[in-house]
Amino acid sequence: MAERESHLSKPVDVVLVGGGIMSATLGSIIRLLEPTWTVRIYERLDAVAQESSNAWNNAGTGHAALCELNYTPQKPDGSIDISKAVAINEQFQVSREFWQHLVTADLLPEPEGFISSTPHMTFVRGADNVDYLRRRHAALVAHPLFSDLEFSTDPAVIGEWAPLLLAERSGDEPIAATRATTGTDVDFGSLTRKLTDYLVSSGAELHLQHEVRSLKQRRDGTWRLKVADKSWNASEPSHVVDARFVFIGAGGGALALLQKARIPEIKGYGGFPISGQFLKTSNPEIVAQHQAKVYGKADVGSPPMSVPHLDTRVVDGETSLLFGPYAGFTTKFLKQGSLLDLFRSIRPSNIVTMLTVAKDNWGLTRYLMSEVTKSSWTKFRTLREFMPTADPKDWELITAGQRVQVMKSHPVKGGVLEFGTELVTSADGTIAGLLGASPGASTAVPAMVDLLERCFPERFTGWRRELATMMPSLSSGEWDTDAEFAQLQADDAEVHSA
């Protein structure tokens, strides 16, 4: 009966699979550009933002490359490459502009509910690291986006910026730090819920506890999705829905669904799952002494996700401190997934990719195994290196979200492991999905604008003017002048004072 009704009913214009920040962002942009389009969201859990977008499943860093050293690698000649840092910072500014537009238009509540001002710092120890940080600062501060970045090797100054880093620190080891007071902490869970509320209030349909089980493209180009109702009182265990466009923003579940869609573009892709943990404290006396996100430097040979950081987190209006991450390995692709996820993802088209990545990344495998076998005290000692006064009784170990790093085919190497995000779109633009992890949520808006340009090229020309109204930097390209940056800062200050 349901299938017959689907044949007779008009296809949904846009189906969003997954109730995370990516789907909520794309849906919001589309709603503003095409208010008459029908939008439907399917989320397999009983609420949105329960996986990677959940505030306790990520560090909440508004990734702007202000403190993350892996975005500023050192070249063989000793110079610092800031190109990736600039690109990520520009992308985050686009995200902030879009949020600002929604707040100004009364489509989102006040920004204090999901974003807070939190300085971003980098803290390093040892002469070589101090020298690197000094050169990194010199390279970045010459660009208008980083002109306010401060640098110091003075323990008194660093202690003033972040007292917990210096309290009872012994020895005469050289130290250095940079600080950007323009940094932010973002509650992506809260932001996702607010964006979803806007979508629903404007006519979109939200179906919780509904899981997309299969996708098949029909002759007319639309997609037929088989959807299972997982609620205990479901009147119809499954039904089908037809869609003109499908976006799969299901985090670790995206790879499997794109594979089920059988689009050629997903061939050669695999996923490498990595779990994480953080130490957390809500002790008000400790929390009051630290107002920053402080990133350190990963050990030699360690992957980017191992970078230690001590973060101020504001979730649902309450402030805590997180330290980590401590990585681990599981075969699940989602925190609430199956141990068979990794094995089910293996296909003839990606087996070479996955085997090559496994062969070439034994260092990562050893690192993950060492993390898994670390004792609680060993993990705590890592915090002590950052915060000498840390007391175990004040901290608890929490399980964070699940990351699935992208593995993709390579014409020479056979396969490579990527540590960013990857947008996969079909040739006809009727289906797309996002794979990967950090900086993910922080760059959701430009990623979704890129998706619109790739999937709706004929319509995108007509959308440019409206998109530029929402996000002015899209029309100017890059932040090349102090005037452009000053305008962004002024606009942002206006939003936060509203």
TrEMBL record:
| This enzyme's EC code(s) | 1.1.5.4
Q: What class of enzyme is it?
A: oxidoreductase
Q: In which pathway does it act?
A: Carbohydrate metabolism; tricarboxylic acid cycle; oxaloacetate from (S)-malate (quinone route): step 1/1
What is any Pfam family matched here? Answer: Mqo
Output the SUPFAM superfamilies linked to this UniProt entry: FAD/NAD(P)-binding domain
Catalyses which reaction(s):
(S)-malate + a quinone = a quinol + oxaloacetate
Q: Which key words are in the record?
A: FAD, Flavoprotein, Oxidoreductase, Tricarboxylic acid cycle
A Gene Ontology biological process term? tricarboxylic acid cycle
Per its UniProt record, the required cofactor names are:
FAD
Which InterPro entries would you find in this protein's record?
Answer: FAD/NAD-bd_sf, MQO
Enumerate the GO terms in the molecular function aspect.
(S)-2-hydroxyglutarate dehydrogenase activity; L-malate dehydrogenase (quinone) activity
Could you confirm whether the keyword Flavoprotein appears in this record? yes
Q: Which family does the entry's similarity section mention?
A: Belongs to the MQO family.
Enumerate the PANTHER family for this protein.
L-2-HYDROXYGLUTARATE DEHYDROGENASE, MITOCHONDRIAL
Question: NCBIfam families, from UniProt?
Answer: mal_quin_oxido (TIGR01320), PRK05257.1-1 (NF003603), PRK05257.1-4 (NF003605), PRK05257.2-1 (NF003606), PRK05257.3-2 (NF003611), PRK13339.1 (NF009875)
Q: What is this protein called?
A: Probable malate:quinone oxidoreductase
Q: Which organism was this protein described from?
A: Sanguibacter gelidistatuariae
Taxonomy, top ranks, is: Bacteria, Bacillati, Actinomycetota, Actinomycetes, Micrococcales
